[in-house]
Design a protein that fits this description.
By secondary structure, the chain is an alpha/beta fold. Helices cover 39% and strands 16% of the residues. The protein folds into 2 domains: 197 residues, Glycogen Phosphorylase B (Rossmann fold, 3-Layer(aba) Sandwich), CATH 3.40.50; 176 residues, Glycogen Phosphorylase B (Rossmann fold, 3-Layer(aba) Sandwich).
Length: 389
């Protein structure tokens, strides 16, 4: 089968990591795959692992030169990675050239909330603006309140990263809850994090957290709450250190920056190949957040990797937190706020045996749900069903 993924940005995004893993997996199992990005296709060499089995291409190349990669010059499946306007327009052009192809749209966020946050206008009000006015207000990197519902209606099928996103899917539309595929050999309990601790001069008696991810306008307050929890845990006598990797595109610490950073090792952007050892250096992995309009519909991209690495993971009771058993596969926080995180830090710091047990069970959950065999069987069957529609 010939499958083309259409991404809204280049290969530097968290979404691109998911698509990279799906495309590589499908090629390894006998399919032909290409991944189209608007521009800067060479970013695949900078941001992703070097084992690229699919064809990275630009939007223009996916229209004009796909025959160079797909010998019969046909497309079976176009998988639109989110319904954002830049992707919708490209899929429209592709379907004009390849009318026999089937269109699948992937949802991974509450696009309506993102549009509302960007514009400062309630989404219900945006829906009543003219198409021309919306084009003026919103860039193509966001979903259009005018076009996005029609795009989902026109799609042959939809994939969603959480079941909650099915709220936005038209009734009776064929759908699949599609979780990420994780390389369980790379994100594994056998990864040794001792060298990282040594390089960062973290002593054996210090309790280590790790958070990998950029800070932006939507998650800034959540990451800030993690910094505050680390600060307060130290004030309570627990020697906690936070290893933090990722870019800051938001000033999220404000006037308290110096005070909150004193227990944090900030590494900035790191190569994706360094991430497993950073996670392995931790005693506990925490995903901050609360049950709100943003977190309810998304799956934070690092949680599957956190679980796979075999360390105890603390997550709020939202999205994947609803699928995990508290104190068995993860520590599920009723509220992912500062006090909850301080309590979790204290709990695992004082009971390492419980932490080890939770880590082992979390790994089993990852093996069951994020393995290549599990994800491929689900996605392969889904694609063949869509192709037959």
């Amino acid at each position: 089968m010939n499958i083309l993924f259409v991404l809204y940005h280049d290969f530097s995004t968290a979404s691109a990591i998911h698509v990279h893993n799906f495309a590589n997996l499908l090629v390894s199992k006998g399919h032909n795959c290409a991944v189209a990005v608007p521009n800067n296709k060479d970013s695949v060499l900078e941001y992703l692992p070097k084992n690229v089995l699919y064809w990275p291409c630009t939007f223009t190349e996916s229209i004009e030169g796909i025959g160079a990669f797909f010998e019969d010059n046909t497309l079976d499946i176009i998988h639109a990675w989110t319904p954002r306007e830049i992707v919708r327009k490209q899929c429209f052009r592709l379907q004009e050239k390849y009318p026999a192809s089937k269109l699948v749209v992937h949802l991974e966020d509450n696009e309506e909330m993102i549009v509302e946050s960007f514009s400062g206008i309630p989404y219900e009000n945006l829906k009543f603006l003219s198409e021309k006015r919306l084009q003026y207000l919103l860039p193509d990197l966001l979903a259009s309140p005018y076009h996005y519902p029609l795009f989902l209606e026109k799609a042959d099928a939809v994939t969603v990263i959480t079941r909650e996103l099915l709220e936005f899917v038209p009734a009776k539309k064929k759908s699949l809850r599609l979780w990420p595929v994780i390389n369980l050999n790379i994100f594994s309990p056998i990864v040794d994090g001792r060298e990282v601790r040594k390089q960062l001069k973290i002593s054996d008696d210090q309790f280590v957290l790790c958070y990998v991810g950029s800070v932006h306008g939507v998650n800034a307050m959540e990451v800030r709450s993690l910094y505050i929890a680390v600060y307060l845990a130290n004030r309570h006598g627990i020697p906690v250190r936070l290893i933090r990797a990722g870019r800051d595109v938001s000033d999220f610490l404000g006037d308290c920056e110096n005070e909150l950073k004193q227990y944090v090792h900030e590494l900035g952007y790191v190569d994706i190949t360094d991430v497993p050892s950073l996670m392995a250096a931790a005693d506990l992995l925490i995903q901050p957040g609360r049950n709100d309009r943003f977190n309810r519909y998304r799956l934070p991209s690092k949680i599957p990797e956190f679980l796979a690495i075999g360390k105890p993971v603390a997550i709020p009771r939202v999205n994947i937190g609803l699928e995990l058993t508290d104190d068995q596969e993860a520590i599920v926080m009723e509220k992912g706020n500062v006090s909850s995180m301080v309590d979790v830090i204290s709990k695992i710091y004082n009971d390492r045996g419980l932490g080890d047990q939770i880590g082992r069970n979390g790994r089993k959950f990852a093996e069951k749900n994020f393995s290549e065999d599990t994800v491929f069987n689900q996605l392969n069957e889904f694609y063949f069903d869509v192709k037959a529609l």
